[in-house]
Amino acid sequence: xxxxxxxxxxxxxxxxxxxxxxxxxxxxxxxxxxxxxxxxxxxxxxxxxxxxxxxxxxxxxxxxxxxxxxxxxxxxxxxxxxxxxxxxxxxxxxxxxxxxxxxxxxxxxxxxxxxxxxxxxxxxxxxxxxxxxxxxxxxxxxxxxxxxxxxxxxxxxxxxxxxxxxxxxxxxxxxxxxxxxxxxxxxxxxxxxxxxxxxxxxxxxxxxxxxxxxxxxxxxxxxxxxxxxxxxxxxxxxxxxxxxxxxxxxxxxxxxxxxxxxxxxxxxxxxxxxxxxxxxxxxxxxxxxxxxxxxxxxxxxxxxxxxxxxxxxxxxxxxxxxxxxxxxxxxxxxxxxxxxxxxxxxxxxxxxxxxxxxxxxxxxxxxxxxxxxxxxxxxxxxxxxxxxxxxxxxxxxxxxxxxxxxxxxxxxxxxxxxxxxxxxxxxxxxxxxxxxxxxxxxxxxxxxxxxxxxxxxxxxxxxxxxxxxxxxxxxxxxxxxxxxxxxxxxxxxxxxxxxxxxxxxxxxxxxxxxxxxxxxxxxxxxxxxxxxxxxxxxxxxxxxxxxxxxxxxxxxxxxxxxxxxxxxxxxxxxxxxxxxxxxxxxxxxxxxxxxxxxxxxxxxxxxxxxxxxxxxxxxxxxxxxxxxxxxxxxxxxxxxxxxxxxxxxxxxxxxxxxxxxxxxxxxxxxxxxxxxxxxxxxxxxxxxxxxxxxxxx
Length: 697
Ligand code: BDP
Prior knowledge:
Elements: E1 4-6, H1 8-15, E2 24-26, E3 43-45, H2 50-62, E4 70-74, H3 78-81, E5 95-102, E6 105-112, H4 115-130, E7 139-142, E8 148-152, H5 182-192, E9 198-200, H6 213-226, E10 232-236, H7 241-244, H8 256-272, E11 278-281, H9 298-309, E12 315-319, H10 331-339, E13 350-355, E14 379-384, H11 400-408, H12 420-424, E15 435-439, H13 452-466, H14 472-484, H15 488-509, H16 540-544, E16 550-551, H17 568-575, H18 585-588, E17 591-592, H19 603-627, H20 634-666, H21 681-686
Parallel strand pairs: 3-4, 4-6, 8-9, 8-15, 9-10, 10-11, 11-12, 12-13, 13-14, 14-15
Antiparallel strand pairs: 1-2, 5-6, 5-7, 16-17
Helix pairs in contact: 2-4, 8-9, 11-14, 13-14, 14-15, 15-19, 19-20
Beta-D-glucopyranuronic acid binds at residues 162-163, 204-205, 282, 321, 360-361, 388, 696.
């Protein structure tokens, strides 16, 4: 439960007529599930299940006194079926919430085909009320467009979280399965409220121990907590586990002993966790083992695991995030080159999981060319909610706009309107399986995600997973209403800040399509000068290719020709710098510093203007947040204000360090009016952060 402290001083001042801060400190624990101060009481369940009980419990806690009694139940319950509500199109998970006459009384009915659907309906009703809907006139109907809505935890068995900036892992592996921390339940509630229905418990850089009996027992304990909330657990599987855990000589997917080992292992897991979801696999990427070690394809590797879980209706999520340290090809091309020829070769219960862009979760990347390019393969979209490259937990960067950008991107694979969203929801190529994954930003921090505004990214992922056509703007608004209450001054300000925030990060870290300019290993802060790492594609200089004459990665015919991996209409647009969106210009083109931009400025002048815009947007956010000081509880207001100050300092650092470096390369002066960097380049290069968080050891 949320820790509430009465600030008596505020009350006293209030009595004297001074403007006061709201009377309660709020530590953010409740997320979007703040309990109602006088909750509704007339809530009745028809039918019986743990999930229906949970749904009723949520309404009794979070729904404020309602004008009508509420009845919850499955659509085939005789009491509800008699009402003949239009529930047929709702599928397994869709809900309907509307008023009907039941036993002679006007009653709000919350229903759906399964008890999970009813649970989602209950949360939808609460959300509607908190965002200002009139319950007497309510009529909600919604079914998820994407089947598998999954969070990927990059949590390690020792309690650390790879790229985690919100404290230690939520899972206390050491005390599981005996102790089931109540936080596990609160975590499940928060996810169920969004419709998230799967959790991968462990890091994609997986330890083989997660597949041993003691750890299966721990996963089982979590599965038992999550089950009533409609959430299945999945595990990341280490491909070489048959060797490390099974003591076999090989992990070759075509070796019958290896296949038998995975079958027996899957049977063992399903004996303990009958609704186990399946495996997530990172293979032959960044040092992880995989089928290529045995000269087998990714499809052969995935299909072996798929065969092991198929008898139990399990699935395999096989990641396409592969790039070989030995391959001299443009890193942005490698996943497509490897996977495209495998289209049609994967088993029915395999999804290929593809990051939004072809490199690695940068603040902006063009959509991954694999989307739309593998019509016979269900393609899962992987988004990163934790902000590895967008300022960790401290920077305010609302990712709803970034997620929306990739979902709306038009692959043109089957003509206009072939959006990434339609590839991912399975509608473009009519796949039964569909899925979306988000790398979680959750840890043991009291506010779960390291800051109040980071919670919005978890929220936005969940809402877009349910319906990828929702707008980032609408999601920001409804999140702010549930998080801060309905005062339009606070909501409008929060939304305004959120909508500007991601572009600001792009501006101050790498505008106009620049990417991968960060410090080594921990990925904290600027390092565009880094050029001495063993492999070319580890170095920022590989990505920007700046020299005296120009900057940018030529991915056209005269360069790596990565543009040819896109559908012809997109490839044609990207082949010419004049038709390439300026936001992606230097991703695809190497251009002279005096290239004329649409604004009339030279490329160099435009870059400087963007860096400056990024820093000033953060200053603007600080000013806006200041305006609502008296309207937001002191605890969340102050933490946000302090973090904005950190962000401002770091935005300025990114700008200054980057400009100092670019000037050392291009020899150009700063445009008139632009401030000189605070320090010289040597100073920026000398900064060292061996203890930055989230760094895998
Ligand atoms: C990169 C992270 C690394 C992950 C990798 C992945 O830096 O820690 O293991 O992605 O997605 O962004 O596998």
